[in-house]
Design a protein that fits this description.
The protein is mainly α and about 250 residues long. It is built from nine helices and six strands, in the order H-H-H-E-E-E-H-H-H-E-H-E-E-H-H. It has one domain (about 1-245). A two-stranded antiparallel ribbon has the order 1-2. A two-stranded parallel ribbon has the order 3-4. Strands 5-6 form a two-stranded antiparallel sheet.
Length: about 250
């Protein structure tokens, strides 16, 4: 227990790490109990709502498709958000029309490459790919934007830097994968991003029967972190790109 406290690990996080170390069959069996425990702990951790954060003026979709609900202006006069707001952001990201479009695209790409042969081809196979692709997105959203941030008191939002050289902004966007704000305003390792995605990958073993190996899990986690890094870059530069495109003269 003393070692756990020294590392700054909460009891729910230790349970998550324990679950990930279990064999695949046991992970599937204990998954419902684990998710229920996480939800209960998150709800118990809720406190009175802090003062409302400044209204966000960021566009809610990038390219009209990619959900963008957790992007906020530069973090001047930082104000934490409530646990309820964290779950609200995850809900908005998960049930936005763009999430369904992205899931449909991922499903088509995976079926084309026959990533999970047991799913088969045709409409039935595509339906399985679509369901699992959408499940990946929803589970990832709730783990990284709601459950882990609520348990660990971390802020899931992406705060645009918006100023400085392009290279400094690229470095900042990439760094947000590994560093984030705490609810108290400090800076800490982004356990919500890394641990949340690792948990989502572990859960995915329950519905990807052909890819239950350690190598596949590491690869899936690396891909997800890479996608989230690309997402941060889009969030950082989308207003600039959108403004530039809107001012582009029309060819006659």
């Amino acid at each position: 227990m003393a070692r756990r406290a020294a590392l700054g690990l909460s009891a729910p996080l230790v349970r998550m790490l324990t679950l990930m170390c279990l064999p695949s069959r046991l992970r599937v069996r204990f998954l419902p109990i684990f998710l229920s425990a996480l939800a209960v702990c998150a709800c118990r951790g809720q406190q009175a709502d802090p003062p409302a954060a400044p209204a966000d003026s960021a566009p809610k979709r990038i390219f009209g498709i990619i959900p963008n609900y957790r992007t906020y202006p530069a973090e001047r006069d930082y104000r934490a958000i409530s646990q309820r707001k964290k779950f609200s952001i995850a809900l908005e990201d998960s049930f936005d029309r763009g999430t369904f479009v992205l899931a449909a695209g991922f499903a088509g790409e995976r079926q084309l490459n026959d990533n999970t042969p047991s799913f088969g081809q045709g409409l039935t196979g595509y339906a399985r790919y679509l369901g699992t692709a959408y499940g990946d997105l929803v589970i990832g959203n709730f783990m990284t934007e709601a459950i882990y941030p609520a348990l660990l008191h971390q802020d899931p939002r992406y705060f645009r830097r918006g100023t400085g050289s392009a290279w400094s902004r690229v470095r900042y966007a990439v760094s947000r994968i590994f560093w984030t704000r705490t609810d108290s305003g400090g800076s800490t390792f982004n356990f919500s991003e890394v641990g949340g995605n690792a948990t989502a990958v572990a859960i995915a073993n329950a519905y990807y029967p052909d890819n239950r190996t350690a190598g596949a899990a590491v690869s899936a986690l690396a891909i997800q972190l890479g996608l989230d890094t690309a997402g941060n870059l889009l969030k950082e530069f989308w207003p600039d790109l959108s403004h530039a495109l809107s001012r582009k003269p029309h060819a006659r």
